[in-house]
Amino acid sequence: MDPQPLERTNPPLGEKMSVSEVNAWYGAQQVLFDLSMGIRTCAVTAIIGPSGCGKTTLLRLMNRLNDRVPGARMTGLIRMDGRDINGPDVHVAELRKRVGMVFQKPNPFPGSIFDNVTFGLKIRGMVMRSFLNERVERTLRQVHLWDEVKDKLKSSALNLSGGQQQRLCLARALAVEPTVLLMDEPASSLDPINTARIEELILQLRAQHTIVIVTHNMQQAGRTSDVTAFLHKGRLIELADTATFFTNPKSPSTQDYITGRFRL
Amino acid sequence: MRPFSLFEFFERMERWVAQLGRGGLALLVRLMTITIILLALAWLGYLFWIGQARLNTEFLFGFNSVVARKAGVYPALMGSLWLLLMVFLLSFPPGLAIAVHLERGRTNRRIKHLISLNLSNLAGIPSVVYGLAGLEIFARQLNLGVCLMSAALTLALMALPTVIITCREAIRRVPAELEDGAVALGATPLQALWFQTLPTALPGILSGVMLSISRVVGEAAPLLVLGAVAFVPYAPNSVWDYFTLLPVQIFYWSNQSQPDFAPNAAAAVVILLGITLIFHLFALWIRNRWKERIHL
Questions:
Q1: Could you tell me the CA-to-CA distances from B35 to A124, B28, B29, B65, B273 in Å, in that order?
Q2: CA A212, A216, A219, A224: dihedral to nearest 10 degrees?
Q3: Domain ranges of chain B
């Protein structure tokens, strides 16, 4: 395993992104209500809450992936480094390059492992072989996949196991050097060993990346995150430092949720 | 007596079918399958037997003649191959474009629904009707006359609904997560479609397109209506030439009063079946070659 830089390049204070007064709808159904929260720079923010509470929607608003969903719309402001990401001067593809995403179900492209990692670079015209080789090795080492696949970079990514596929998807996102990483229950389809690997990766990546992770698993939120937010029925119920959140929650419904006494 | 229960009725029916399946039914189905295959083989053998005298290179590369023994199938063979290529070129690009638009375009959903409804209807229209439409539109109104081009346009029009439908199916089988993944890396929707969805759907698209085109080019009826039945002694040199093709040639020969032409028709049928078989095998090969790319 490679030594990872453990010092954070940015101070962990300050906000990389901020969400203010966001409402979101699918058709006539409102799924987010007047939601405001900050995303701390180079920290891990966990979003927890029951199914259908709007966690994934919030995540997909942050890289504007919901633009692609017919009938989805939003009001309010989402800023990154102080700039409105829905503003007219923002190039969506450029935004999505800076805000990477890992999905719930591993979704590698049906090409080779090499093609998967380089896709985000190639579509930007970066095709120099030496550069691509170097980037592939670096990102695959970063996700601890290099030793497992270095001899079969040309073989299909679909032949990898689920855990390997998910790490490949993470490498693919890292290859375009995002500053923010959105993770939508990245370990929910993985076994405990691969889950532990992903969590370890999150802890290493937060040194240089701002990470937002949606999870159903409260232990996971506790283990990996610096800040935890609790969403319920599209509203932000509580947002606090993870240590405070789990030991001393202010809202009674947060308390009920984390102790498992929650009723919908 | 207990009241009649529909549920119980179906349950009993199912048990009955299952019992049959274990014994007699499976045997029956197997027998039927074998009978059909044997019948088809027997028919093919019969054709071979009748046409054996003419199944040689002389027949394959010979030109047409009023004397049955001297007549060759070359003009019809070339006409069929020309048409295969032209119909592919004329129906595949617009068919794929329309399919992509229907699957990904921003047209109103109701209009899309209307279009797909009409497509299924168009796919079911008898081929003679297409022939009449082709005769009027391409040969007369557009003044192309009876030539390869008007025939190819007519057949392409006929193939288009099926081409669109198969392309749509193939595109729809590609999971949406694939495109989401590409877009999340900063690809534009068009790049995601072009570099991920279409290559993944390509085997399905190509094999479907091949099958619908080879079926269309095997049709005689629309081109008979278009006016393709005649004595054509030469192979086409350009798309504006008069032409004939295998199905029409078969029709022509089998319509002759002299029995000498029967072996010609039989031999031409064998050749037509051979071409169709090659096409189907090719489509199958494409599908299997890229099979691993489809699942996710």
A1: 60, 10, 10, 39, 20
A2: -10
A3: 6-54, 58-295
pLDDT digits (tens, 9 = 90+) for A95-123: 999 999 999 989 999 889 999 999 999 98
ipTM of the complex: 0.85
Contacts of B105 in chain A (CB under 8 A): none
Share of chain A above pLDDT 90, in %: 42
**Side-chain half-sphere CA neighbours of A247 within 13 A:** 4
- For an interface test with A, the pick among B185, B190, B194 (most A C-beta atoms closer than 10 Å) comes out as B185
Exposure class string for B44-82: b at 16+ Cβ within 10 A, else e: eeebeebbeebbeeebeebebeeebeebbbbbbbbbbbb
d(CA B178, CA B185): 11
Residues A27-60: b if buried by 16+ CB within 10 A, e if exposed:
eeeebbeebebbbbbbbbbbbbbeeebbbbbbbb
Residue with tokens 């402001």: A77
* Distance, C-alpha A115 to centroid of its chain: 22
Amino acid letter, A157 = A
Q: Which residues of B touch A119 (CB under 8 A)?
A: 182, 185, 187, 195
Contact A158/B295, CB-based, under 8 Å?
Answer: yes
Please answer yes or no on whether B191 and A120 come within 8 Å at the CB atom.
no
Query: Which residue intervals of A92-153 are DSSP H helices?
Result: 92-98, 113-122, 129-142, 146-149
Kindly report the number of other CB atoms within 10 A of residue A123's CB atom: 20
Q: Does domain B58-295 have CATH number 3.90.1170.40?
A: no
Alpha-carbon gap, residue B137 to B8, rounded angstroms: 59
Q: What is the pLDDT of residues A134-145, one digit of tens each?
A: 999 999 998 889
CA A100 to centroid of chain Cα atoms:
7
- Within 8 A by CB and 6+ apart from B226, the residues are B131, B134, B135, B139, B146, B150, B151, B154
